[in-house]
Amino acid sequence: MTMANKKLAEFFAYSVELESEAMERYEELADVMALHHNDQVAQFFVRMAQEVTHHLAKVSDLAKDMELPELKAWEFNWPEAESPETASYEALHYRMSLRQAMILALENERAAESYYRQVANSSDDAQTVRIAGQFADEELSHAAELECMLQELPQNGANLREEDDEPHMPE
Amino acid sequence: MTDVIKLKAKDYKSGIKPIWCPGCGHFSVFNAITKAMAALAISKDDTVMVSGIGCSSRLPAYVDSYGFHGVHGRGLAIAQGLKVARPDLTVLAMGGDGDGFSIGGNHFIHACRRNVNITYIAMDNEVYGMTKGQASPTTAMDWDHSKLTPHGPGVRPFKPAALALASGAPWIARAYSGNPNQMAKLIAEAIEFEGFSFLHVMSQCITFCPEQTDWKAIVHEREEPALVDADEAAKLFLHEDGFQIGLLYSEQRATWPPTAVGAVTEGAVAQLSASFRV
């Protein structure tokens, strides 16, 4: 394997991990939100999982003829503790509104775009630069779609949904 | 056989959907366990998850391995018994702060002392979540969110790492649910450690302790290598802020039960019995 191919293979390994982690997290969130009867948010996360699945399939297809390095979960050197497009657990709540869920997803898309852009700007391998740039543009377009969806939402919903069954112990 | 094909983390999930609250740190522990199992290529057929009672103790059902959802606070007793009977198995015990340090507190200290070769993961969210949010042994003195303790529990919280060290645990680490990849690494190391490995996980409860989202800004990774000297570790555990994550202390010592020194010769039991005859 040439040095250039090695760099591209490593980039694909990171991309597959990034998209897989994001997809699995959205699937997990969709399941648990449905379980807690927050159906609107659950459906939104299902949609996000589908979009990431689509992107993962594309990445996997591009990488199908390459032997990717097998890295353990903790061997990936991400900018933060988790891969950039993965929704953080701390940002969640079973009563979160659709607006809050969309803002969370938007942050994830922006983080992914920033990651791919940083690779495109820093790699010395021409193919990696080109493909990372493409991925960054795709994430940017997803972010733009989410921004449009957010604008179409009613302005309320910035806070957790109200409910009459507060999570406190009974008197 | 499950061992022939290299499995991914998601292949170690049973398919049963967790019913924890969205945002619960236990999801992160669950993912970290499956990542560690995949990294070590552990056989599902030779692995057992044992738990007590509580939100976190639901975890064995979600992992595609053997599992036992035990009695409150008794996960460690079951896990040790299993490992002694079947030393060929990889045994992980798990539970929450109430299960491990209150109801099962005595089992915890004796498990540390006994040093059976198992891994214990304590998912500490400083609250009894399953019963709707009461103070646990690790709750801060002034935590006044529960109507049972409106002015806070008023007693000092346990320091699990210090308690483990004082009881003789040879391997002590701390992880944070906001960093599942580092946690996966620690779980893999804990499984590979020859002896009782204790992983204290700060696992946030978003529902009853929303202030725990602040942990993300407070936790800090240990830069130095793990301590090997118990005196130094004692100083660290008594004076640290409790938000340091990583492998904190590691020391090799003999596990229990001790390895048999020699083979039992034919007739030895009869000879021994005869020596007690009056």
Describe what you observe in this structure.
The complex is a heterodimer of chains A (171) and B (278). Chain A has one domain: Up-down Bundle (Ferritin). In chain A, 37% of the residues are buried. Chain A has 4 helices and no strands. The model of chain A has no long low-confidence stretch (mean pLDDT 93). By secondary structure, chain A is an all-alpha fold. In chain A, helix 1 runs antiparallel to helix 2, helix 1 packs parallel to helix 4 and helix 3 runs antiparallel to helix 4. The termini of chain A are far apart. Chain B has 278 residues and is an alpha/beta fold. In chain B, helix 4 packs across helix 5. Chain B is globular and about 65 Å long. The chains are: A mainly alpha (171), B alpha/beta (278). Chains A and B meet through helix 1 of A and helix 1 and helix 7 of B.
Keywords for this structure?
heterodimer, A: 171 residues, mainly alpha, Ferritin, 4 helices, B: 278 residues, alpha/beta, Rossmann fold
